Amino acid sequence: MAGALAEKRVVPPRARRDEDKEARRRELLDAARALFEATSFAEVKMADVAARTGLAKGTVFLYFPTKEALFLALLDDLLAAWFAKLNGRLAEDGTWTGHQLARTVAGSLEGEETFTRLLARAQTVLEQNVTVAQAQAFKERVLVSMGTTAALLQARLPFLTPESAVQLIRHVHALMTGLRQMADIAPVAREVLTLPHMAPLRVDFTAELTAAITTLLRGLESR
After folding, report:
1. Quick one: pLDDT at residue 20?
2. Among 54, 48, 67, which residue's Cα sits nearest to residue 24?
3. Which spans in 96-204 are helix H?
4. Long-range pairs for 58-63: beta carbons < 8 A, 24 or more residues apart
5. d(Cα 221, Cα 95) in Å, to the nearest integer?
6. How confident is the model at residue 97 (pLDDT cuts 50, 70, 90)?
7. For the residues 117-142, what does the mean pLDDT come to?
């Protein structure tokens, strides 16, 4: 009997525990994403995330002390995935023009509404209730990703300098978040915008972003 109890108390290897923790962390992020896509950030509760994963609410807080920390971690993952996608497209050989690059950037965001919706809330919401360590870790990863992408942008368009390539990324960020907020409208407003004379207020996210980046690049090239 004592031997059987001893066997039950055997502690699993450290690596296995780490794998379990990462799997649970991933499960929480996936649940948060699904709830966010079905509703909105304001409507998602930590209790909902716990219920969706079958975990106790207290367990969720062990991994993410605040809702903002949870969604900042989700944004971190989505941002890294988008940079990787964009970098893959920018790495393609050929003669590039500013308009082609603009189309490439805008096209890389098609189907990435969850990412752009969260990105629009990064500074105003997600970074407002996290620790300095959490915010710095997020910013450090963004900085590394920006550096990699800036180098690829310079390779595609030689008129870009290291400084202007980074500036371009910052400006694209501003355009992405602004246009996403304009395109992500409430159902009642969407109905209003179907009226023919409301056409100037309708926003095609990909088309508008392509046009804006193209104009931005023309300005950088003429410097």
Report:
1. 82
2. 54
3. 98-107, 113-119, 132-156, 162-183, 187-192
4. 60/28, 63/21, 63/24, 63/25, 63/28
5. 16
6. very high
7. 95
Tokens for 107, please give them.
């096209």
Burial 59-81 (b: 16+ CB within 10 A, else e): ebeebbebbbbbbbbbbbebbee
Residue 141 — pLDDT band, cuts 50, 70, 90? very high
Inform me whether the pLDDT recorded for 1 exceeds 50.
Answer: no
**Whole-angstrom distance, CA of residue 10 vs CA of residue 4:** 10
Q: Amino acid letter at 76?
A: D
Distance CA 101, CA 167 (A): 15
Amino acid at 120: A
Structure tokens at 1: 């009997």
- Specify the pLDDT at position 12: 37
Alpha-carbon separation of residue 1 from 7, 9, 12, 212 (angstroms): 10, 13, 21, 73
> 193-213 pLDDT, tens per residue?
999 999 999 999 999 999 999
Q: Which of the 8 DSSP states describes residue 108?
A: T
What is the residue-wise DSSP string for 61-83?
A: HHH-SSHHHHHHHHHHHHHHHHH
CB atoms within 10 A of CB 202: 13
Contact assessment for residue 100 and residue 106, using Cβ atoms and an 8 Å cutoff: no
Q: What is the mean pLDDT of residues 71-82?
A: 97
